[in-house]
Amino acid sequence: MKELLNSKFTGSVSVPGDKSITHRAMMLGALTKGETKITAPLISDDTLRTLACMEALGATSRKTENDYIISSPGRDQLKSPEAQLYTGNSGTTTRLLTGLITGLGLNASMNGDSSIEKRPMDRVAAPLREMGADITLKDDKYPPIQIQSSPLHTIEYIMPVASAQVKSAILFAGLFLDGKTIIHEESPSRNHSELMLSQFGADIKTEGNSVILNGGRELVNSDIVVPGDISSAAFLMVLAAITPDSDITLNNVSLNDSRSGIIDVFEDMGVDFEITRHNNSGELYGDIRVKYTENLKPFNISGDLIPRLIDEIPVLTLLALSADGESRVDDAEELRFKETDRIRAVVDELNKIGVSFDEREDGYTVKPAEIPDISKISFKGYHDHRIIMMLIIMAISSNQEIHIDDPSAISISYPNFLDDLKSIRGDK
Ligand SMILES: O=C(O)C1=C[C@@H](OP(=O)(O)O)[C@@H](O)[C@H](O)C1
Ligand SMILES: C=C(OP(=O)(O)O)C(=O)O
Questions:
Q1: How does it assemble (predicted)?
Q2: Predicted confidence (pLDDT) per residue in 245-254, tens digit
């Protein structure tokens, strides 16, 4: 990390492919007879877990220079896996596959790492059981998950939490059922499943905060081009905004409105940035240029904005340290159910550098702070990629090395993180 110190950050980077879109492309590609070409997917620990699970069901994959090709014998030929499926650290893999396997009428057992074993799965089991699924959980809440094939029917479901993983699991289970699966959300969550299902020929539409899937249609392959992941770009965007003399451009980043809440926050705080949108149908994307900005205003993040930037909240907290007043996060209790309790982790780690938080169940108020000498502090990463990368950005922006107990989890979503940082470093 030494080589990243005493730097400003300039130039352009193509951040890795969107994790949510890559998971879904691998799953729908495996479900649809023939070949699906996925261009510029994210290849990381989490998405490789999805790929391995789809192969265990009977799909195959091969890699070309830029693409992954998924081949499927068709959904009728997919089979119940012989061994337990291993979903690693990936909540998306675990929850979406629970819906998909239920919809396929297969039997499977599924488990992940020690973090997955603590993440609530009753939120997917409840609607799927309403559809007729036979699902068993540990303590009726956690993995391992056992799914036994059983007859299903469509449901109309009011989502108790804003979760694209739960919404997608229900949609995947309803895909081959005759009739309408209807889901109502209070705050819309990311809509990648809806967009991709539509691209694969499903009869699906969104009306206000409701999604209506008319099931039973055969899916047809469609090639997928994966834009850059705005959740990964967020780390570099924040770094550029708080590091003097920086000016970076992130190419071809997803600007899907259900994911781009960070742009709204940058605008409200007065960050110097500009966006060049590219014309396309389906998933929106464009280039994001961010420059170092003085005199940032504090942020207030709550309500419908939360699902649009849920994974970016840890790194946005760094931006709050540079603001000229107290910033607030409300309505973000979901952060407590991620790879680790991200409210706890942010508060505990930034408390170590003297940041003052007023912590609540669903968020916090945070005061601006200078980052002190951190050379004698030991930080914890909680095996959570978003916490680890936030801590690294905190260190680099203050020109210091950092001791994190175990930074290896970066490979869950952004294996080239340090190399991308090196590619935009410039001498002061
Ligand atoms: O559907 C997805 O791809 C995701 C949905 C979000 O989780 P929830 O569905 O739990 O909100 C997000 O935090 C996660 O990183 C990816
Ligand atoms: C919460 C995340 O992922 P998942 O739920 O798939 O583990 C994340 O990537 O921040």
A1: Monomer.
A2: 999 999 999 9
* Active-site annotation holds for 311: yes
**Closest of 172, 181, 165 to residue 307, by C-alpha:** 165
For the segment 402-427, the average pLDDT, to the nearest whole number, is 96
The reply to whether ligand 2 has any atom less than 6 angstroms from the CB of 24 is: no
The interface predicted TM-score (ipTM) is 0.99
Token pair of 164, please? 């694209």
- Computed over its alpha carbons, how large is the radius of gyration of the chain? 21
Q: Compute, in angstroms, the gap from residue 339 CA to the centroid of ligand 2.
A: 7
For residue 205, give the H/E element and its range: strand 203-207
CATH classification of the domain holding 416: 3.65.10.10
Which residues, 6+ apart, have CB-to-CB distance to 383 below 8 Å? 89, 113, 115, 339, 340, 406, 408, 409
173-182, 255-264, 272-281, 404-413, range with the lowest pLDDT: 272-281
pLDDT per residue over 390-408, tens digit each? 999 999 999 999 999 999 9
CA of 19, closest atom in ligand 2: 9
Its domain, for residue 373, covers 2-16+228-427
Q: What's the predicted TM-score (pTM) here?
A: 0.98
Type of residue numbered 209: N
Backbone angles phi, psi at 136, to 5 degrees: -115, 135
Q: In what order do the strands lie in the sheet with 363-366?
A: 300-301, 327-329, 363-366, 357-360
Count of alpha carbons within 13 angstroms of residue 410, beta-carbon side: 20
Segment holding 175, helix H or strand E? none
Q: Which of 23, 89, 190 to mutate to test the pocket of ligand 1 (most atoms within 8 A of CB)?
A: 190
Shared domain for 351 and 311, answered yes or no, is yes
Residue nearest atom 11 in ligand 1 by C-alpha distance: 163
Last residue of a domain, one of 181, 196, 225: 225
* Contact yes or no for 54/82 (Cβ under 8 A): no
HSE toward the beta carbon, residue 229, CA cutoff 13 A = 23
The neighbour count for residue 170, using CB atoms within 10 Å, is: 27
Contact in structure between 188 and 163 (CB atoms under 8 Å): no
d(CA 314, CA 14): 22
The residue whose two tokens read 């790879």 is 339
- For residue 46, the surrounding DSSP H or E stretch is helix 45-56
